Amino acid sequence: xxxxxxxxxxxxxxxxxxxxxxxxxxxxxxxxxxxxxxxxxxxxxxxxxxxxxxxxxxxxxxxxxxxxxxxxxxxxxxxxxxxxxxxxxxxxxxxxxxxxxxxxxxxxxxxxxxxxxxxxxxxxxxxxxxxxxxxxxxxxxxxxxxxxxxxxxxxxxxxxxxxxxxxxxxxxxxxxxxxxxxxxxxxxxxxxxxxxxxxxxxxxxxxxxxxxxxxxxxxxxxxxxxxxxxxxxxxxxxxxxxxxxxxxxxxxxxxxxxxxxxxxxxxxxxxxxxxxxxxxxxxxxxxxxxxxxxxxxxxxxxxxxxxxxxxxxxxxxxxxxxxxxxxxxxxxxxxxxxxxxxxxxxxxxxxxxxxxxxxxxxxxxxxxxxxxxxxxxxxxxxxxxxxxxxxxxxxxxxxxxxxxxxxxxxxxxxxxxxxxxxxxxxxxxxxxxxxxxxxxxxxxxxxxxxxxxxxxxxxxxxxxxxxxxxxxxxxxxxxxxxxxxxxxxxxxxxxxxxxxxxxxxxxxxxxxxxxxxxxxxxxxxxxxx
Length: 529
Fold this sequence. Notes:
This protein has 22 helices and no strands. The chain is an all-alpha fold and 529 residues long. It has one domain.
């Protein structure tokens, strides 16, 4: 029995049968399974057009990366990765990338509205576009962020037998290493801030890539692309019996240009962390038709969620979500926590206290992707006791979300609490960036549609727009410079503050406008043998 919906699986089956026998109702935002209207169909195709246009612009910017973004990356003769140097102006690139961000967010928005009106973009087309684009991004130079170049340096440090939690890329450059010389100046003096499993990934990429920073990053991006595709294919399989929810899932994840940009084009490790965490929560599923997951499933789920946290520590929220669900069952709770510990403890023990100390390295900082800088006076500064205020707000809103967020994903009890906690963290923690949003979107893709979709999409779109086009100088043109500065320091924080306030308002009023709960979900069924 599903206590939140007040219906059993049998009742859900009867509902499906009744819907099949009754005439198709007219389109309504509350019933996306209704017959589409003309506007809905137009929005569905407009969504596809905007998404394709956004992806093509992003691919073009990545292909000419060395023409406008710094530092220059020497590309191996014959590739991969491949690139071109037509020398477009920074003004052209900036305008195109801002347009790509608006088209990407607008395309996903239009698709979600179309689904609410009974229409939907073709799910198979969305999946195909997403997988193809991610594969293309993997063989192009990293664009929009220099983090992948830092990752390559940390991998090279590990290959040379040093500890990347102690040695910096500056030390590597001082030794006249070609990988060290290719790292950007801004983070050259910073030790790695990632978890031990991310360091293992970087070490493996450096082993395969040798002394070519382009080849090292290529391997990092290939593994990120595989992780991104794994989530997309898992969503496609889990929702294959419901074309409406499958289309929505691919809009939010598989064909979302904004996520592709921050995860695939830029090459951030969050793609790997999201894949581990998502699959971990999917493993912690109940048996059909009723019952809790077996202890073995909790152990496996804890190990996978622990692997996500071992890549990037904020994914400890996924372990917390598992523990929240299992809190009334001591064997299940112990199994989940033990599974996470089995993965986390050896890595941190191997690298020692320096690896632990970096977990708190950014507690005092304020990123562009939050609203705290509105009250700090200038970008890069913080308000007094900011980390404590952020922790308090996160805790309060997380409890409020756990209490007020409606709905469940049948058979997947850990999705709802993990989503509630992750959204609270993403909206209120002082240091977040657009690629952190992956932890929320992989879960939203399985959840019922609601106004939370819009808030998450606004959060991601404004964050990506503010950081466009990437690691380039501020344009010399007055108008472009104004857009760059204002979007970074005023517009984005103001919009994010409004989104945070709206989230609390939804919790208090419960006006989520959530669609009807899942009736069937492939995750309820036994895995194929």
